[in-house]
Amino acid sequence: MTKDDGKFESPKDIDSSEGGYRKTASSNMEDTGQPSAGRMPAEELSAEDDSVNEESGPTYHRGPVIMRGNMIPTDNTYANLLAPEKSTDWLHMDPWRVLRIQAEFVDGFGALAEIGPAVAIFGSARTDRHDPMYKAARRAGRLLAEAGVATITGGGPGIMEAANRGAYERGGTSVGLGIELPHEQGINRWVNLGMTFRYFFVRKTMFVKYSEGALVFPGGFGTLDEMFELLTLVQTHKVAHTPVALVGKSYWSGLFEWIEGTVKAEGMISALDPRLVQITDDVDEAVAVALSNIQR
Fold it and tell me: Of the residues 84, 128, 185, 192, which has the maximum number of CB atoms within 10 A of its CB?
């Protein structure tokens, strides 16, 4: 039995007094050979005390825990580790789920820690390759690569593919952070550093942690979720100032007119910091905004 499993100790090595401190016959004496104050010499311990100790049986130690009698376990931790499982229900319970989440964080941090300065690009997976926004996102990826800055996308098709493609074509770092979805096609072929996540919140943490600016192209609920997550963190000072540029005035203006009008008029938000979000049709201007926080 290993130390981690616990160990047995003879009852003769255990003091019968409260607290279970070990003692020997000599521990009852001072250096002078006389009994220490308040202690009975070992030879004067009663036979009754000895019998109590003998009847208590062996003592089992598992870390700081002491067990005796019927409390002593019949198994050990190493045998339990190697024993075949009768049920795999634990695979679908929260403690195991927490370990999977932790593993995703560890893998993500390890993969992205050394990519250097980066800008996140969000946008729809449904954008066609002939769409002007596809071409705009591709140019944005090129401009970032030329500036020596990594491009981080969700790794999918559409806008994400376009941005990764532009970065890849200019020899830049093209990062794709995918997500497990039933009908997604996986990481696009223009990614040179990719990872697929099971949990959205872990993936979004990677976007925020490793990007110093963001470009947001037209998109649906996923794009809106990523954009508002970032804006919320910046507005509530949970992260440092992160410049955000929205590309496509006709697409985004209605949303922000509603935010600045209805939402603000109802007292639901304070005035948006004009430095927080800028809306433009000019890709070069959008990239300049996203890069404005990067020291080069």
Answer: 192
**Do both 116 and 71 map to the same domain?**
no
Residues 225 and 180 occupy one common structural domain: yes
Pairing state between β 65-68 and 59-62: antiparallel
CB 234 within 8 A of CB 213: no
Whether 103 and 161 map to the same domain: the answer is yes
Q: What is the pLDDT of residues 220-248, one digit of tens each?
A: 999 999 999 999 998 888 988 899 999 99
103 within 8 A of 199, measured Cβ to Cβ: no
Handedness of CA 212, 215, 220, 224 (dihedral sign): positive
Residue 62: DSSP 8-state: E
Structural domain span for residue 37: 7-82
Establish if 91 belongs to a structural domain: no
Domain count across the chain: 2
Residue 70, pLDDT score: 85
The answer to whether residues 255 and 186 belong to one domain is yes
Torsion of CA 248, 249, 254, 258, to 10 degrees: 110
Q: Which residues, listed in sequence order, are joined to residue 153 by a DSSP beta bridge?
A: 176
- Complete edge-to-edge strand list for the sheet that includes strand 277-280: 193-197, 174-179, 150-153, 118-122, 214-216, 244-247, 277-280
Q: Is the dihedral of CA 72, 77, 82, 83 positive or negative?
A: positive
